[in-house]
Sequence to fold (879 residues):
Amino acid sequence: MTKTTAASFIKRLPIPTLIIGGFWVFILIFGVTQGLPLSSLLTDTVRRFGMWGLLVLAMVPSIQSGTGPNFALPVGVVCGLLAMVCAIEFGFMGAGWLTASVIMAIVFASILGLGYGKLMNAVKGSEMTIATYTGFSITYLFCILWMTLPFTSPKMGWMLGSGLRNTIELGTVNANQIINNFLAFDLFGVKIPTGMLLVVFGSCFLVWLFFRSKTGSAISAGGMNPMFAKAAGLNVDRSRIIANIISTALGAVGIIVYSQSFGFTALYDAPLMMAFQAVAAILVGGATAGRSKIIHVIIGTMIFQGLLTNTPPVLGRAFPGTDLTEIMRLVVGNGIILYALAQVKRGDK
Amino acid sequence: MEPSLLSFKNISKDYAGNQVLKDVNIEIKKGEIHALIGENGAGKSTLMNILFGMSVIHNTGGFEGSMEIDGVETVIKSPFEAMEHGIGMVHQEFMLIPGFTITENIKINREIPKKAIYNEITGKLFGNRMRTLDFRAMNQDARAALDTLGMDIEEFTLLRGLPIGYMQFIEIAREIDKKGIKLLVLDEPTAVLAESEADNLLKAMRNLASQGIAIIFISHRLNEIINVADMVTILRDGELVVTKPVSDTNAIEIAELMIGRRVVIDKEESTRELSDDIALSVKDLHVAMAGERVRGIDLSVRRGEIFGIGGLAGQGKLGIANGIMGIYSAKGEVSFEGKTLPLNNTRAVLKSGVGYVSEDRKGVGLLLDESIADNIVFTDMQIHGSFLKKFLGFISLSDGKNVRKHARQMIKDLDIRCTSELQHTGRLSGGNQQKVCVASALTQKPRLLFVSEPTRGIDIGAKKLILDLLRKLSNEQGMTIIITSSELVELCSICDRIAIVCEGRLAGILPPDATPVQFGLMMSGMDMGE
Fold:
């Protein structure tokens, strides 16, 4: 019974998902034959899955609302970064720092998300291009802010001069891997970051629940068929704004989850290309620019991040002495993004 | 005897078994103005598509019969070939570039290169398209074409800012400037023109005809046809009713032949008693719906009445329901049960007990990738907050069990043929999709129901079911129903009164047993007094 359901589940996946998934499995097997322990490869994958989970989940509301994948993910990301540095500045530590960061992140993201949603309504028809450049612009706007905002905490400044450092250690506020370590355990040598997985799956469940609610179904109807929604007396523009606020907030909380697992907050141009990886992941998972489901987030993040993290060590082992790893990471990563972006047009909106 | 310029011989055409033209024969002579008239779906556009070799014809298996030009059998495979045979078309929508002068618009893609030595060299080096242009020769050609039409406007005027009436003439000038033009098709050319402009156009048409150019004139305006045409061909349901000289007929006969005497499907005999209460009153309604513009309509509909709105396509009948429901922007005064309905506010209109079944099932009426159950309850859930349950005390979620139960009841009541209430509506047949749309409207328990084109694209069996359902709703629940339809037969078989809309205005209101002549004349915008 389980076997047949698994088989029918795999059959329903789009062919590109299967190809990229198959490639990932191939890399894993190849890695094992090269003498790399499977447990360390899977540990990396699970951790990266947790780090990217919320950032990819942020794509769902915007796709469902008809705005397309949220290429302006950096808008959410900078909100999360701002919240984290503010929480450090105010002297929070450990769990207190985490709570303060999440709350502030949601507040900042709601404000910027509202503005971003309005912008998306003003540029209907070319959302994806405008969103991409919105993401770029806000990243650089915040580069100025990181330099000029009057932060004083010695944990974040340069040795000399003013402004924030490129990377800020979260160990200094006792927040390094704070979510990851919650209930963490080893399974056959694979480290399971229980807390982070709970956050990711919990958020997935909440988003799923939201789309079962009245407001959520209004948003997805507006995305599927704006005329239908209009004839049902709905305000499609309002739905799109709500969806983009949620998407931005998920991005903001997502970068906090990402950073604590990473151990650092990365400021300045670090958020610049983050949207592409998230968009690629959900598209690889089987979503289109017009339709997406939670399952696309889970499958896509697993396969895409799995392939991205496992390819460099495996190829590094296969071709020792060369500096192929970094090049391969870029080739594979951008190759998949390229493929995924080529899919965007096919998504019938 | 000289052969006809163009003859259609035994033309038949079906789209996937749906016969749209049956054995049509038409002869058009040199210098003749030949009017083509018929209701929507009579086959006019299909016939013109065949004449121009449009891909829609060839992609659907071609047509039967043959076409002869100057007595020679000709197959036209593309609009470009039609142009080479000297056949031109002036479309209803203008295809002109506002930033160009009249000359440039007329000569576009047929520009005359300057005769000069340097031009020979640039032509050789960079191709003919890089040669500079001989504006003097082009202006002369444009002038000649404009003169033929009797237009005294300067040919070097920019198009932008010219009155709309001129645009039509420039389109025609472009066609007649083409070498060897023999036949010109004008599709509703006067629809956008003011009366005086229309008169000028008719004059220009006569002028062209006197120079030997034949004109196929498609129009719904009977008086223009009587005024200008030599011959008239009437099509009805894909069949040629008659071709006769206009001098041998009159508007009344044409109107009657166009509508035809049709058997009304099982008209209910019982006399319906209606209250005198006015359920809906509409004053000076204007609706900005492209292609179905409403230009000031007054109506009152009694409670419990089945009220029909008919008229030809593009005359604005569909705009009325769309405007009142707020789908397209509207202005005017509408009141329902004595209370003013806010315009451009779909939510408020739905909330006050007005239901709507759109004419565009797939585009507006349904979410094709969602289940029947979700489609049926969606609007009611959004408007009245029904079919929701509380989760953890504060989050309202859709109550799946209740939704499915209601959907199953509706499927049973309306006899929707499906595998289950979870089947996606995109997989259903047209008739069943329509029933889902009606079910969705009924779920809101409306006291007034707008139904637009309820039977468009539905087979005859399903048609009857839908009409019976509407009649039942009216009889049993006293629901006021306003049906907008292109099919007069259908309106006559079910409605208590039928309003005919022409050019965005109300042409009149007729009882269902009015004669075809009365309907035909009203649809063609003729005053009943004439």
In short: Residues 98 and 161 of chain B are 8 Å apart (CA to CA). Chain B has a mean pLDDT of 85.
